[in-house]
Amino acid sequence: MILYATELSSYSLKVRLAAALKGVVLDLRAPPEGYRSAAYRALVPSGTVPALVDGDFTLAESDTILEYLEDRFPRPALLPDDPRGRARARFLGRLHDLRLEPKLRACFPGVATGTVPAGTETAIAADLALIDGALDPEGPFAVGPVPSLADCAYPASFAILEALAPVFGWRLEPAARTARWRAAFAAHPVFEDLLTPYRAALAAWVASKR
Fold first, then answer.
1. CA–CA separation, 96 and 92 (whole Å)
2. Contacts of 11 (CB under 8 A, 6+ apart)
């Protein structure tokens, strides 16, 4: 399986984490001539990263890729057995993709100047509170004792938050469930192995903009 990805793409890391948790080996490749190129669009019509190629089948959009990997490699499962647990995992994934991540991405142009629109920190704090309230009260992961698809999106965004907070002077302390959740990521070798180079690449990018 080929995964077209870039080192700074949080959605690429999301797919890589899910694959690693399942023990699926991916052939990582950079989009030929860049993801905006005609060469890449010839392979992936949407022109987005990540994109998965499994033989003659090409799939874009990270959540769709995660669901495909779950169907293609059902063990170990990255969704709970019960319908409510599966729904909660998907809900947390949507909270990330539709609320938290877009707000973080919108801050990237302001890294050079250290400024973002008024109210950005408050809006991100509100999303973080909503996410914290949706986490499993026992944990340590999003929907129970073991990682699920819901846990694959957030590590990159938490790393982005850590990198952006000093740039913009944010004071966003994690709530209790989220703090426990982030500690679970730090203690899990799969998450840490992939997060370490991601944090380094992110730090280098921030430094290049300052």
1. 6
2. 49, 50, 62, 153, 156
Residue in this structure with the two tokens 């430094």, named with its chain if needed? 207
pLDDT at position 13, please?
A: 98
- Give residue-wise pLDDT tens across range 76-100: 999 999 999 999 999 999 999 999 9
Instruction: Note whether 128 and 174 are within 8 A (CB).
Output: yes
Structure tokens belonging to residue 5 = 């990805």
CA distance 127 to 121: 10
> Is pTM beyond 0.90 here?
yes
- In angstroms, the CA 2 to CA 20 distance is 14
Give per-residue pLDDT as tens, 137-166: 999 999 999 999 999 999 999 999 999 999
**Tokens describing residue 208:** 């290049």
- Cα of first residue to Cα of last residue in the chain, in angstroms, is 37
Distance between CA atoms of 36 and 44, rounded to whole angstroms? 10
User: How far is residue 194's CA from residue 199's CA, in Å, rounded to a whole number?
Assistant: 9
